[in-house]
Design goal:
Elements lengths: L1 H13 L8 E5 L4 H17 L2 E8 L5 H16 L4 E5 L2 H8 L3 H20 L3 E3 L4 H13 L4 H4 L10 E2 L7 H10 L16 H14 L5 H30 L8 E3 L5 H14 L6 H7 L5 E5 L3 E6 L2 E5 L11 E3 L4 E4 L5 E8 H10 L5 E5 L7 E4 L6 E2 L8 E2 H7 L12 E4 L2 E5 L3 E2 L11 E7 L1
Parallel strand pairs: 1-2, 1-4, 2-3, 4-5
Antiparallel strand pairs: 6-9, 7-8, 8-9, 10-14, 11-12, 12-20, 13-20, 14-17, 15-16, 17-18, 18-19
Helix pairs in contact: 1-2, 2-8, 4-5, 6-9, 6-10, 10-11
């Protein structure tokens, strides 16, 4: 019992989890982990010079059993001479209303409740009873869900919002031994054995299986999570420092120059930039954006990300795009992402298959030309003063400005409409009108297919 308490105290001092004079809200469910945490902190409080307040939330999922847990926690707090705040939530209703899992809804309700109690009580810290076993379970849970290094770092002993986990270096077996030695009789939540929850299956099935390969697998996974967390902290700090050199000042720092950066920093800079605009960038978005060729990707938060070469531009939702004049060669096959977020793709079709596609698939988003008759190199560019188009099926030419007005393109979007040109001739006002040059006919041997994606 003394050893357990001494280890908790050593962890608190080493990691500076609680400073003298701070008030701590202790989250107590009534289970072994939180009960052991509460009693250890009561023993350590005089040495740490901290005040304690107990908080318990009934999630509204277990009826009378949940109410009994709340009464048990309140009695424990009273016996220890501590004030206690009880709360009750309707987790199932929130899960249904917000289309969340019950676990996610419970977590959100719990943290909202604890933050509220901490604010009301003037507490700087919120202490949770997670152990090394919880860390191993969280690591595996996030691994099977496809988390990256940030997620696999799992739980930190201390967070910026004041959440602390003094038991994170101790095992569940050590917690149970402390409870027995102290004569504590914790409450047992049967939902912790319900196989409907993935975490419970990891605890009951996967971890025991892994222990047949390595009996110390819980310790190993916890150590890996800690190593990844330290690596992520370093890379995150490096990325924040790199922003000054690689994020342009124009438009509030929405233009990123990724030239010469290692992949790890490129990914983190993209995510930092997206988060600064109220969005995010997850692995699948970053992989698509940093793949071969130019790209345009819609990120969480309705932020458009456009990459051309090594430069990426982020466009917040609702912001009109009025890029500076630009032009980019269009390789065949290949693709070009425009500053407005459109992607123009080009490829070649041979002979009869190409001629058939030109007859059957042509639309405002897909058009076809005789590749061998092009009057110059292909490029995608923005409009220029004096641009004119010779529309397919019409005699003479029209001003591009008049065409865009007739197509009801808003004024603020006209500079963002890309043009595909061959030399100086406009082939396609992308998504709006096809030019008369180089139509596909029965003599066409190679068909150029242009697509808007």
């Amino acid at each position: 019992m003394e050893t357990f308490t001494a280890r908790v105290g050593a962890a608190i001092r080493r990691q500076e989890l609680i400073r003298p004079g701070e008030r701590v809200v202790v989250a107590v469910s009534g289970g072994p982990d939180s009960l052991a945490l509460l009693h250890a902190l009561v023993i350590l409080a005089p040495e740490l010079s901290c005040g304690l307040h107990v908080a318990h939330l009934d999630h509204g999922l277990r009826g009378a059993a949940g109410a009994d847990d709340a009464a048990f926690v309140a009695a424990q707090a009273a016996r220890l001479g501590l004030e206690c705040t009880l709360g009750r939530a309707q987790v199932a209703e929130r899960a249904e209303r917000e289309r969340l899992s019950v676990e996610d809804a419970a977590r959100r309700e719990r943290f909202a409740f604890l933050r509220r109690v901490a604010a009301e009580r003037g507490a700087a810290k919120i202490a949770l009873g997670h152990t090394r076993d919880d860390q191993a379970e969280t690591f595996l849970l996030r691994l099977v869900r496809g988390a990256g290094t940030l997620g696999l770092g799992a739980m930190a002993p201390a967070r910026a919002d004041g959440v602390i986990r003094p038991l994170l270096g101790l095992s569940r077996a050590q917690v149970e031994e402390f409870c027995r030695a102290a004569g504590l009789e914790p409450r047992r939540d049967p939902t912790n054995r319900d196989p409907a929850f993935l975490r419970n299956r990891i605890r009951a099935e996967l971890l025991p299986l892994l222990e047949t390969y390595n009996p110390r697998i819980r310790e190993v996974l916890s150590r890996i999570a800690e190593d990844l967390r330290f690596d992520e902290e370093f890379l995150g700090a490096t990325a924040r420092e790199a922003r000054a050199a690689h994020v342009g000042p124009a438009d509030g720092g929405r233009e990123l120059d990724l030239e010469g950066l290692p992949e790890a920093l490129r990914r983190r800079l993209l995510r930092l930039a997206a988060q600064s605009l109220g969005g995010d960038a997850f692995h699948r978005h970053v992989a698509e954006l940093l793949g071969d060729g130019d790209a345009a990707v819609m990120l969480p938060g309705e932020i458009r990300a456009v990459r051309r070469g090594a430069r990426v531009r982020l466009i917040p939702p609702g912001e009109p795009v009025a890029p500076a004049p630009w032009s980019c060669p269009l390789p065949v096959p290949g693709r070009v992402a425009t500053p407005a977020g459109a992607v123009v793709e080009a490829d070649l079709l041979a002979g009869a298959a190409g001629r058939r596609a030109a007859r059957e698939e042509a639309s405002l988003r897909r058009t076809f030309f005789d590749y061998d008759r092009l009057p110059g190199e292909l490029a995608v560019r923005s409009r220029r003063p004096g641009d004119r188009l010779r529309p397919r099926g019409m005699a003479g030419t029209v001003k591009l400005q008049d065409l865009l007005v007739a197509r009801k393109v808003p004024r603020e979007q006209r500079d963002g409409v890309p043009l595909v040109v061959a030399g100086e001739e406009i082939l396609w006002v992308v998504g709006h009108r096809v030019g008369a040059l180089c139509p596909v006919d029965p003599t066409t041997r190679r068909v150029l297919r242009l697509r808007l994606s």
